[in-house]
Every structure is written in C-alpha cells, then in structure tokens.
Amino acid sequence: MSHQYEGLTRFFASRKGIIFAGAVIGLFASLLQKFGNPPNMGICVACFERDIAGALGLHRAAVVQYLRPEIMGFVLGAAIAALLFGEFKARAGSAPIVRFFLGIFAMIGALVFLGCPWRALLRLAGGDLNAIAGLAGLTVGILIGVQFLKSGYNLGRAQKTYPVVGWLMPGLMILLLLFRLVRPKFGEGAAIFFSESGPGSLHAPLLISLAVGLLIGFLAQRTRFCTMGSIRDIILMGDTHLISGVGTLLVTAFVVNLILGQVKFGFAPQPVAHSSHLWNFLGMALSGLAFALAGGCPGRQLFLAGEGDGDSGVFVLGMIVGAGISHNFMLAGRPDALVEGVLQVGGISSAGMLAVIFGFAVCLVIGFTMREKLS
Q1: What is the DSSP letter of 92?
Q2: Is 152 left (phi over 0), alpha (psi -120 to 50) or beta?
Q3: For 152-176, what is each residue's pLDDT tens digit?
Q4: Closest CA to 263 of 155, 153, 127
Q5: Structural domain boundaries of the chain?
Q6: Beta carbons within 8 Å of 99's beta carbon, 6+ residues apart
Q7: By the 8 A CB rule, do 122 and 136 touch?
Q8: In Å, how far from its chain's centre is CA 253?
Q9: Band of pLDDT at residue 82, cut at 50, 70 and 90
C-alpha cells in the first residue's frame, strides 16, 4: 500500500474521518430529497430495498416500485474502496439461514415504522417528531441484543471462500443497474415495474443518485459507518467513535434542510409516516434487535456485502424478501393522511401487529439458543 493510501487509511479510521463521512451522508441525503427523492427519504435503505422488491415483482404495491440506484451505488462503492485498499475478501458460512430470517424480520419492523435507522435520523432532521419513538425503540432493541452478546451470543466465524462468492452481490447490483438503465419489460404484466404515483415515482436523476451512492459506499466502507454499531459500542464499551459520525449526519441534515426549507416540525401529518407511537417504537425495536443479532444495520450490511461478505449478502436478500412479505401480507405501516381537511391516523393492521410479536419471539429464540458458554 502506498504512503498516500496509508495516510487516507489513518484519516478514515480517525474521529475526523467518521465525522466527515457523517457530514457527507447528511448533506447528500438532504440534497437527494431536493433533487427529487421522497420527502424525509433522501436515503432510506429499507425503503429503497422495498422499492427494488416491488420493481422485481416480489410485491405488487404499485406506489413503491423503483430500482433505486443508491442501493447499487452503496454496494459498488464499497467494493471499489475494498479493492483499492486491499480489503476485498470473499468470506461466508456464518449461520446464513439465521441471517436470512433476521433480514426478513428487520425489514418487517422497519416497514412497520416506515424507515430504517438512517431514515429515522433524516425524518427527525426534517422535523418529524414521530422519529423519536422510532429511535427510542431502535435503542431498546439494540440494548436487548447487546445483552445476548454479553452472554455469549455468536453466529460463528465466516470462512474464507471462493472469490465468486464475494462477487455475487456486486454482480447482482450491476445487473439491477443495467435493468434500471434499459428498463426491460419481460412480458404483459411482468416485471420490471416502475411506480407512476406515490413514493416510488419520486426519485432524483439517475446519475446523481448513483454518484451519491458510490461516494457514500466508498466512505462508509473505509470508516465502518454503522448506526446500530454506534449505539452498541456506547452500551458495550462507552466508545463514542461511531456515534460522532451518526450525530454529525443528523446535525448536517437538519442544517441543510433548514437552508432548503425542508423542515416541518410536528407529529401529523408527516410525509410517509404515521403517528401510532407504540408501533413506531415496537417496529424499530424489532429491527434494532435483528440488526444487533446480525452484526450491523442495513447500510452496514450492504457495505460488507460490497467487500465480499457473503453472509451480509444473505441478510440483504432477507430484507428484500421481507419487503415482499410485508406488502403481500399487509404488514407494513399505513401513513397518516389528510382527507378533506380531516386527519386520518395511520398505523398498522392486526396482521402487522402479530408479525412484530412473532418477529420478537423468533429473534429471542435465536438470541437465547445461539450462545456459547463463557469460560
């Protein structure tokens, strides 16, 4: 590695590096909203993976179907960074089926809340006070997960494997990007689907979205940016390194939103959000627990998949399948709405409530039964 790369490595590993990454994410998340992405959804890993699931026909909710270039950029940007710095390492084999189901339940919880941890921060930065309940739930879920980590919970070690395994997820993202560019139609009523109304129809220009995704993927791979990890590290070790980047994301996005006139304080109605506080809390608590058990937030899983981690790729696929399940079985949250001047509070269906409870039960079983005895 050259001296120049060594200097960059030291910078990205430093507090200044993680703060820089958080500022870049906060800045461009707000700008993507200005450029056309949905309100308070400049970046949302869960929402964007849900849109991809819809575009592929894994669900038929017509308002959330779009091949989001940001997701492709996250993985490919991380792959570029890992290759440049000699960190691309194909590895897999650490309880993949468990990771797949954790991805499913992480997505179910996120879509009950209507956002991933990144969107929770961006919703708060846009004045959506419902995000407070979501962030509180996320923290509690991670806290529960940390207790399992302390008691010996472990998914086991990933093993070095064939290079093709590490390239499957970047390869998939290249294919999806080609689909976005060509917009093929495989037959009457067949994928690829693109929303004509609703959040899926709102998107920044392709090249801008892709460029931002590549930049963030590169920076996040180098700095190990992770919202779940930031809370986990404080609870486990009192380490504030990662949280300084997450905090910078929030502050930067809020300042940029103020400048752009994208702040509206209140609970209802907020864009693509509901004010059912209990389920905002419980949905993100389920996601937080699943993220902690899987070892990373949805963004971090994408970045790891980009550097060759097949297990993180399985978690990502679990989230995409979970999006299909959420919408096909009407588990996702329903946003608040103004109808003829009257507020209709959204929330979730009875099936969604049962899914969250079932998700907690499965995650707790995984946490209790996959513990090594501590000597």
Answers
A1: E
A2: left
A3: 999 999 999 999 999 999 999 999 9
A4: 127
A5: 3-369
A6: 155, 294, 311, 312, 314, 315, 318
A7: no
A8: 17
A9: very high
